[in-house]
Amino acid sequence: MNIVLLGAPGAGKGTQASKISEKYNLLHISTGDIFRANIKGGTEIGKLAKSFIDAGKLVPDEVTCDIVKDRLTWDDAKSGYMLDGFPRNLYQAQELDKFAKIDLCLNIEVDESLLMDRICGRRVCQCGESYHVSRLNGKTTCAKCGKELYRRADDNPQTVKSRLDTYNTQTAPLVDYYKAQGKLKTVDGGKGSIDDIFAEICKILNK
Ligand code: AP5
Ligand code: MG
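That is the input. Now the predicted structure with magnesium ion docked in place:
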């Protein structure tokens, strides 16, 4: 099964993707993680992406679509994948439909008032796990791999405001795009614990 995960910044896409990937053995592809790895590695893509990410804006479509198109040709994508953070506008969604067959769009809906705290309190690991300071009980390392946690450079109030604005204007219309294709399933990602929301997602995926 090939899934698109849709949701505002901080909705819980990465958190739920990690759990889905483990339980259903689906490859997790996050364009945000790919860009951050490129920034860390000092690549040309990383240099280009950094200015857009720091401003809370979308990295240009051509670059992003090429990365995803190429990634989906790898062997590990053949038995199913989850796209986290792609597509992010109508153009990307239409391009994706040209090189992939998407079965389901899982839309994680969260009231905007919760997102700023979630993002600004987030701590992440380079292995892809993310946490919230309120549940870390003072721990500074990843429970999965033991590496030191850090705060993402774009997780500051000013950039988050811009990311939310980008989401509302460019990404939110994809809800209607996938609804029109009969592929949309929405979960309330603002009510309940991470495990409660995962249970709702499992109900959808088990059908
Ligand atoms: P990206 O990395 O995709 O960031 P994002 O979409 O802003 O989403 P986040 O990763 O911030 O949130 P999330 O939904 O994964 O939440 P998480 O699970 O961590 O993209 C970053 C940038 O890269 C973009 O701004 C753009 O510049 C660029 N980019 C990426 N893709 C692109 C594309 N396709 N085109 C162009 N540019 C692109 O959870 C957040 C926090 O909430 C955590 O602390 C978590 O523990 C907590 N939490 C989760 N669930 C719950 C819950 N149920 N209750 C309480 N807390 C919870
Ligand atoms: Mg994420």
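Residues 170 and 196 are 29 Å apart (CA to CA).
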